[in-house]
Design goal:
This protein is an alpha+beta fold and 356 residues long. The chain is built from eleven helices and ten strands. It folds into four domains: 50 residues; 47 residues, Arc Repressor Mutant, subunit A (Orthogonal Bundle); 156 residues, Ribonuclease H-like superfamily/Ribonuclease H (Nucleotidyltransferase, domain 5), CATH 3.30.420.10; 31 residues, no CATH class. A hairpin with a 5-residue loop joins strand 3 and strand 4. It starts with 7 loop residues before the first helix and ends in a 5-residue tail after the last strand.
Length: 356
């Protein structure tokens, strides 16, 4: 007869009652389907503790093999109270002096004890805060271009469109308006390259601190796109976070673009890009601009004299070696691998030994 899982207490009472009536242990155990060892254990518990001995007992071990002795834990807390500035490594060394015959616990164990008793101060994680650069006032075309992504919107086929726009600061000339599937840098590179080939290179480009123009965790906030601009000899300007008015002329163009080319949106990217191309034509050659005294942007803008070129490998005459950054953003010197940043992947940098 197997045990009933839902009524173990009643089964044990019946088992003990049969033994108290004088029946043999072997026959009762055989009838209940248990071993005689289990039967004697149940009966002995009843004789020692009465009915309470028949209740289920906790199966947790009485002690843990790796549990820290309470004497050592008290010593850790006492040392911390005496020396509040000490951390886990120093407390571990102190324990080794106090108890030379006892192997001191690991630093992580000591830190857990301190943390459990609220004796660890958690440092606030420092987050990178983007900052703007110095902005210049320009008086000639191509001295400053402005670039940004207009806010995304949904097309008729439920895909999101992210228009990347480029304008000339002085003449308000709309250089490019390309609908992209995302704000990733892979889509932005061809747009800027086409603008550089058609209109030449500007002296500087002004953007915000978002992707793909900047990277929050990279060196100096650079991105692959901005590194490419620097290689082409283009200066970088960034507005302060939360201050879109510093790029106000470009944002004002976005308002006109939104009204005339995105409402209502087209069904797919091809149709939407056709509307963007038509908007560029009207905006540059047919729409008078008040800030230009009624002139068209095309009447003020002239292409840049700086032709687009593919940058050569840079030379570093005052450095020891020129090394190419790997695709994972490392520089390898012998067997040493030094993490730099993935935004410099494929770029050549100069290194110089300053000490051993």
């Amino acid at each position: 007869m197997p045990w009933k899982e839902c009524n173990r207490m009643d089964e044990r009472l019946r088992f003990v009652a049969r033994l108290l009536e004088g029946e043999k242990m072997a026959s009762v155990c055989r009838e209940f389907g248990i071993s005689r060892k289990t039967g004697y254990k149940i009966f002995n518990r009843y004789k020692e503790c009465g009915l309470q001995g028949l209740e289920d007992r906790a199966r947790t071990p009485y002690r843990h093999a790796n549990k820290l002795p309470f004497q050592v834990e008290k010593s850790i807390l006492r040392i911390k109270q005496e020396h509040p500035t000490w951390g886990a490594p120093k407390i571990r060394d102190k324990l080794a002096k106090i108890f030379p015959s006892f192997k001191p616990p690991a630093k992580s164990t000591i830190h857990s004890v301190l943390d459990r008793h609220g004796l660890v101060k958690r440092r606030r994680r420092r987050r990178h805060k983007a900052q703007g650069t110095q902005l210049q006032a320009v008086r000639s075309p191509n001295a400053l271009w402005c670039a940004d992504f207009k806010g995304q919107f949904q097309l008729g086929n439920r895909q999101y469109c992210y228009p990347l726009t480029i304008t000339d600061q002085q003449s308000r000339y709309l250089l490019a308006c390309e609908g992209l599937e995302s704000v990733k840098e892979n889509g932005a590179f061809p747009v800027f390259e086409e603008a550089f080939k058609e209109y030449g290179l500007p002296a500087a480009i002004r953007t915000d601190n978002g992707v793909p123009f900047a990277s929050a965790h990279a060196l100096y906030g650079l991105s692959r796109l901005s590194v490419w601009w620097l290689r082409l000899g283009i200066s970088i300007e960034r507005i302060k976070p939360g201050n879109p008015q510093q790029n106000g002329r470009h944002e004002r163009m976005h308002l006109t673009l939104k009204k005339e080319a995105t409402k209502p949106p087209s069904y797919n990217f091809l149709q939407q890009q056709g509307r963007f191309d038509q908007f560029i034509e009207v905006y540059n050659y047919e729409r008078p601009h008040q800030a230009l005294n009624g002139l068209y942007p095309a009447e003020v803008y002239t292409p840049s004299a700086r032709q687009y070129f593919k940058p050569d490998v840079p030379e570093y005459p005052f450095h020891d070696r020129t090394i190419k950054v790997t695709r994972c953003g490392r520089i390898c010197v012998g067997r040493r691998k030094i993490n730099l940043s993935t935004v410099f992947a494929g770029q050549y940098i100069g290194i110089r030994e300053v000490e051993e």
